[in-house]
Amino acid sequence: MRIANRKRFMFSCIFFTLILLLFGKNQMFYSRYSAVRGQAVVEAAKGKDGFSKVKQNNSRYTIILDAGHGGIDKGTSYGNMYEKNLTLKIVKYEQEYLQNKGYNVVLTRDSDVLVPLKEIGNRVNAANGNVFVSVHVNSISDPNFNGITTLYYDPKGYQSDERTKLAKILENESVKSDDWYNRGIKKQNIAILRYSKIPCALVECGFITNKSDRDKLSKDNVLRNLAENICDGIIKYINNRE
Ligand SMILES: [Zn+2]
After folding, report:
1. Which residues hold their Cβ within 5 A of ligand 1, which is an ion?
2. CATH number, domain containing residue 230
3. Digit-coded pLDDT (tens) for 54-106
4. Does one domain contain both 92 and 135?
5. Domain ranges, residue 43
6. Is the same domain home to 138 and 165?
7. Total domain count for the chain?
């Protein structure tokens, strides 16, 4: 080999070594990348699988939601703020939240119509559901009264423990955001709670006659938080029963 050739040979050797090193590194990088990607794919599949399993499990449950009042019965009101509109908004947020988690949801009304109380009872019992929750807004002459109350009723002690438990959970969950005052639970003979054959409760979502509550009720994000909190209560109740 001539000096020039030897130099060329040496240069080629170094060049190929460099190429090999680079290629090797790339290979390593690529295999590491695909390992990470592979892991991510497996995790996504697992997550997806787990998620759909949860959804499938949740689809065993039917939750019936009732937006208080409707149509010619606007419920309580303050100015142009009507109970029937607030309850429908809250219930629709609840429906969206629960359906996203895979639960079956039945609404006693999904538009501005009046469903007679007896018919609400019929719809609840025909739905073959697990939990029934009615949403209302309170009012009273004393403007200082504020906060959320959950009402329950156990006709002749029917489902007494279950209904009390549901009311307590709903009450405690519903006040979890936006500084709602917890007025506790109250037993009250209400037609729809009397008609219902399944565990049920009625959440009175604040007082329209109280300035601070009214401010809350005028904000969609507060209504959404409230709806999601009530749903968390429903889910907690369902999971505690198993
Ligand atoms: Zn009402």
Report:
1. 68, 75, 136
2. 3.40.630.40
3. 887 999 999 999 999 999 999 999 999 999 999 999 999 999 999 999 999 99
4. yes
5. 1-58
6. yes
7. 2
Q: What is the mean pLDDT of residues 129-152?
A: 98
State in Å: Cα 124 to ligand 1 middle. 18
**Does residue 27 surpass a pLDDT of 50?**
no
Structure tokens at 78: 């303050």
> What's the mean pLDDT in 139-164?
98
- Among 58, 87, 103, the domain boundary falls at 58
Which residue's entry shows tokens 């209504």? Answer: 223
pLDDT score of 37: 38
For residue 211, report the distance from its CA to the centre of ligand 1, in Å: 18
